[in-house]
Amino acid sequence: MSKEEKAIEILKRFKQDHVVDWMGKLTENEKDRLIEQVLNLNIEQVIDLYNNLSKTFETGDKKIEKISAIDMNKLEDEEFIRYKKIGEDIIRNGEYAVVTMAGGQGTRLGHSGPKGTFKVNLDNGEKYLFQIIVESLQKANEKYNVVIPWYIMTSEENNNQTLAFLEVNNYFGYPKNKVKLFMQGKAPLISTNGKLLIGKDKLIKEASDGNGSIYKSLAKDGVLEDMKNKNIKWIFVGGVDNILLKIIDPLLLGITISEGNKIASKSVKKINPKERAGVFCKIDGKPSIIEYSELPEEMSEETDSNGDLVYGDVNILSHLYNIEALEKLSTKTLPYHIAEKKSDYLDENGNLITPEGKNVYKFESFIFDAFSYYNEMSILRVKREDEFAPIKNAEGNDSPETATKLYNQKLKKK
């Protein structure tokens, strides 16, 4: 059976005959590219996900429990110093690296380009999001007399733009040989009536499949091997859009090592039971994050003997991993979550169609779904105003205005 015959057989088996018809309208080169894509896609998985859209998270048969966290502001001075020294020794030994997840575009901000190339106007000058991260790295390098390796997860959509931006800006003074880009995974989009879409490039339309693909991408693109060659033992992973993110924190590192854990995260205190944020918990005895929409109301309002919310530790996308954990997780397949999106596509005549509303399902895996592969993890609760100023929306909450206000307030404290 030829490659073309195999591709047609796959498409027909999953009722995607419109793609077979589309093949007949392409040049030989275009058809060859589409055939290769079909043979490399896991169409069966996408169709299976589509067929099981009705399956949602059910709390009824799952045991949800509180997870323990250490409040940084309640640590004794002696503990603080001890934990910090453990972490600082790791950093000084050159066993620490930073990964920035930067696969998104700044569309919601009205910005044309990768989100990391978005510029904010701060009291200490106008700065790009990537530039703020570099300043944190350089400060740590000077303090610990090292050069921390920096890995940036991009997407196929913005990888070339990100690379060009960093080159033009000379990596903001960071050693180029200490920076490595790698791309997150992709998954096909599928229309709300179960059909694969054709994009402007005349191929089946795909989109980034969520930050949970980081684990497999680290292995696939040779990043884990590069880390091992550099004798990296601990890796911090965070997003590009939190301008107060503390990417080098010996305290979190020291606590995690002292508790004998392989993974860790930071949290901030939930503002109130109604805050629309995922919180840390244990589900069936395993560390997890449960979305606000999935936590029963009575549990979201439950308080402990101190009056604090039992489920009050908000995920701020500030994670720490031992290299062994990343190696293990790179072999695991995480569950997919479904998001309904709006996406243009080519019709059967090659005309570009821009829908008025949401018309496709996007399948995404989340980085925190990997936590359940461990029985325990360390969680350090920090002050929101010190470490959480995300830029996600053009205005309102989590906007450039709110984030820069928090950043400038912290500057004045120093």
Task: Record the SSE blueprint.
Layout: H1 3-13, H2 17-23, H3 28-40, H4 43-51, E1 64-65, E2 70-71, H5 77-92, E3 96-101, E4 119-122, E5 125-128, H6 129-144, E6 150-154, H7 159-168, E7 179-183, E8 186-188, E9 190-191, E10 206-208, H8 214-220, H9 223-229, E11 234-239, H10 250-258, E12 263-269, E13 279-283, E14 286-290, H11 297-300, E15 313-322, H12 323-329, E16 337-341, E17 345-346, E18 352-353, E19 360-364, E20 378-382, H13 384-387, H14 400-413
Parallel strand pairs: 2-20, 3-6, 3-11, 6-7, 12-20
Antiparallel strand pairs: 1-13, 4-5, 8-10, 9-19, 11-15, 12-15, 13-14, 16-19, 17-18
What does this protein structure show overall?
- The chain folds into 2 domains: 1-40, no CATH class; 58-413, Alpha-Beta Complex (Spore Coat Polysaccharide Biosynthesis Protein SpsA, Chain A), CATH 3.90.550.
- It has 414 residues and is an alpha/beta fold.
- The chain has 14 helices and 20 strands.
Concise overview:
By secondary structure, the protein is an alpha/beta fold. Helix content is 32%, strand content 21%. An eight-stranded mixed β-sheet has the order 2-20-12-15-11-3-6-7, sandwiched between helices. Strands 1-13-14 form a three-stranded antiparallel β-sheet, with no helix packed on it.
